[in-house]
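Table S4 entry, Probable replication restart protein PriA.
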Amino acid sequence: MTTTRKRSDRQPAQRLPVARVCVDVPLAHLDRPFDYLVPAELADDAQPGTRVRVRFAGQLVDGWLLDRVESSEHGGRLAYLERLVSPEPVLSPEIARLARAVADRYGGNLADVLRLAVPPRHARAEQAATTPAAPDPAAPDLAASDPGIPDPAAVDPDVAAGGPGGDTEKLLAELDQGWRDYPTGAGFLRALAHGRAPRAVWSALPGEDWPARLAEAAAATVAGGRGAVIVVADARDLERLDAALTAVLGPDRHVALSAALGPAKRYRAFLTASRGAVPVVAGTRAAMFAPVGRLGLVAIWDDGDDLHAEPRAPYPHARDVLLTRAQLADAATLVAGHTRSGEAQLLIETGWAREIVADRETLRRRTPRIAPTGDDPQLARDPAAATARLPSLAWEAARTALKADTPVLVQVPRRGYLPAVSCVDCRTPARCPHCAGPLALRSASSPPACQWCGRIAAAYACPHCGGRRLRAAVVGARRTAEELGRAFPGVPVRTSGRDEVLTAVPGGAAVVVATPGAEPVADGGYGAVLLLDTWALLTRADLRAGEEALRRWLSAAALARPGAAGGRVVVVADGGLAPVQALLRWDPGWFATRELAERRELGFPPAARMASLTGTPEAVADLLAAARLPDGAELLGPVPAADDQERMLVRVARSRAAALARALHEAAAVRTARKAAQPVRIQIDPLDLF
């Protein structure tokens, strides 16, 4: 009887190279490279950066080939690579090193980070790019909408490296025009063009064409022979940045990378960057790991937006990934926005970065007239201003703007019609009789329905007083649009939110009701911007409530016309509150300094480092028992979390951050090695601490 031996059981007849592979297994105790022999038939194509399939623990799993060496330190018998998924090197050494640093920073696994960094393979897109099929005469011409991936061999090396011809000083003189309102802006561009690595926090002026400014920074970097990565929060911002980069750099000089593109287009854009065909990559947080040759600049717009936080393990933030990447690659850094986060302020106060701001005279010239409705003079004129949803000052500002044939923007923090209702008689919040979820009204004629389970509660009766009438507890964007339509008859009223986002508004009288982040840009700017229901932002049980409120207000107010051109902003809030004061003076740096000082005093991020541990009480206690926490670690909690789980916070000084992440990762490895049944979610510096 003949026994056939598996290839993984054979001993090599000659010395074969060894591949170090990161296996795609999400277990903390397996977070290290494993050695495999490279069979002769794969020796040419199985190079570092390629995807492979390997036999691991009796199963065939995916992996990334990190390196090839002559021998292994493993004393036992090595298995062979089972097969090569593709000869395309999708993982560059720079990104592999960055992924390891990010995994260590967040106490996670390298495989989890690589899953975020490298998009899933799309074989048809890859094959079409490598060996284009013969054109089909009957097929439509898609070249205009999908130009495909240039052949690297056909790309001019100087162009691919990002070194344009012509006089650099002449180019800089053109680019400087957009930065002339910032005293240190021109110096930042010149440093980029001369190959240096400046680090800056930029506070953009109201009405600033920020996509054009970022495109000019990328162009200066390209002029210095290096590449750039620019990250924005959402697809709407990416669309504007994409158009600006095309206008400044020219066609086919950058790619836009976003998870919303779909598998084929996203992978095609990724390959374009990976093959060095373009020097600039722009995108949403999916682009923070984008491969760019000779990286010279990383930039992020509006780093306080929670969309920059990755919701998948190990939960990295795009800002921190880009800062780490800049440090590793000795690249320039630009943290930009109308507002300033506590993390950005910390970069300035520690001297790691310099600020780019306009002088006060320029700021006064560009800022709209901003007024609150809750200060004493306004209350003396309108006693109802403290309780009215649309006080007379806001109504008058909107009417004046509409009479001047300019659009009006109304920002409301909630979408929907009436997203929360309560009993008319006793004011008790209305809850679903089946699941206790909040009841809401989707329109003026619809019955109340549960926000959680979707059940209709047409016969709702208050369990406390028996009342059957409901009142609005929170007013949404659609109800606000309905009310404004009655207040300004004959004026078109449009809404912009998560379900339907307007990208632009033509000039002329119109009212746009938008939720934060969905405000469209108006041609020529808005004549008036009204900030309603500010209490919903300011009263949130969140460490960043004030910072987030100011970020949303400044982003909306920046769309107004300058005060000299009639632009007005009305915030329905008390003018004595610190975020409102920062808005009135348009001074996000002052507020960020104040917030950072308070967080230092209280020991909250970014002044300290915190880890959030969420799981069942037994699992959290088990992980903490296995963790060798650094000296000075402070435990806060536990507090209840969702689904009968609890949450524990671990706080350490910033100097102990690496030791904390390492201790938690090692404790997680102990638990996975023991095959613990209940997982614990580990998050370092989460945005939501409460």
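The chain has four domains: 8-89, 126-130+156-362, 368-539+556-586, 603-684.
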